[in-house]
Amino acid sequence: MAFEGLADRLQNTLQKIRGKGKVTEADVKEMMREVRLALLEADVNFRVVKDFIKRVTERSVGQEVLKSLTPGQQVVKVVHDELTTLLGGEQSKIAVNNRPPTVIMMVGLQGAGKTTTTGKLANHLRKKHNRNPLLVAADIYRPAAIKQLETVGGQLNLPVFSLGDQVSPVEIAKQAIAKAKEEHHDYVIIDTAGRLHIDEELMDELQKVKEISNPNEIFLVVDAMTGQDAVNVAESFNEQLGLTGVVLTKLDGDTRGGAALSIKAVTDLPIKFVGMGEKMDALEPFHPDRMSSRILG
Ligand code: GDP
Fold it and tell me: pLDDT for 279-289, tens place per residue?
């Protein structure tokens, strides 16, 4: 399960305070020491941990009294609320274009799960929202990328727009959107090129694709298992491209959770979806409150 290690530690810590009829400042301090260690061990950004501890401590010591809860339960509730805030607060939905199609640009480093997520997202839009998306193969550099997206489209029985690898991604995006209008696709999802590292050439090109396609969303696909590296990648892409959200992949294998817990606080970008496996239906809209409940038990 995702966040296994963190969930175990936090649940153990909170268990000790939950039943208490009286919570002293020393109790809160002791608990916060353990919460701090648990978060740091989960690879959460240290500044994020510091702020989190400060907020929970302030609210727990000067506790607002809720009649239905014991003091111990109230402290647990404060941790839950603050964890939800840390994960992004409200669920962040996909922005929709008033005049279809809604254009979503998928960006990210190679291997993060961009092509897979492009397919998963299209599948989600069709299955859950009854939409008719067009997939666009604009990664012309990685040898097998176009083929991979075509395979994914074939599996899902969804159309893939491609012009091979000799046409520029900008031209591909332009023609794809024209075709989507003609054929009444309500979503266009563009799978762009990824590299092993961020470089200027990649960013220049993504910038041009952005200009021509005027996307409603630019989603960065990042591998949750890379922890703080994922947060750094998100910061760079956001600075250079102006992202609208993040899709965290491979959360199914992420026992720590550091990226998920740091990304919103560091970049102010919402986590829109999480990838929970390799299969095409393993994509979930991200609900901060539900995730918080899952972690705290
Ligand atoms: P791209 O280079 O960013 O387009 O990455 P791919 O879409 O080719 O994905 C790289 C690998 O990650 C593939 O083996 C995918 O099956 C795998 N993958 C993608 N998303 C997930 C996920 O959410 N969970 C798991 N376990 N594997 C994933």
Answer: 999 999 999 99
Reduced to 3 states (helix: H, G, I; strand: E, B; else coil), residue 64 is coil
Between the CA of 223 and the centroid of ligand 1 the distance, in Å, is 8
* Residues 281/252, Cβ–Cβ less than 8 Å: no
Q: Give the position, in ligand 1's atom list, of the atom nearest the Cα of 139.
A: 4
Q: How far is the CA of 113 from the centre of ligand 1 (A)?
A: 4
Q: Any known ligand binding at 135?
A: no
Residues 285 and 140: their CA atoms lie apart, in Å, by 29
Bridge partners of 275, per DSSP, are 283
pLDDT in tens, 156-189: 999 999 999 999 999 999 999 999 999 999 999 9
Which residues make Cβ contacts (< 8 Å) with residue 56, sequence separation at least 6?
32, 35, 78, 79, 82
251 is in an annotated binding site: yes
Is 250 annotated in a binding site? The answer is yes
Query: Which residues contact residue 60 at a Cβ distance below 8 angstroms, ignoring those fewer than 6 apart?
Result: 23, 28, 32, 74, 75, 78
Rg (CA), the chain: 21
Model's pTM, two decimal places?
0.94
- Tell the residue number behind the tokens 């720590």, with chain if given: 256
ipTM above 0.90, yes or no: yes
The answer to whether the CB of 285 falls within 8 A of the CB of 88 is no
Cβ < 6 A, ligand 1 pocket:
108, 110-116, 194, 249-250, 252-253, 275-278, 282
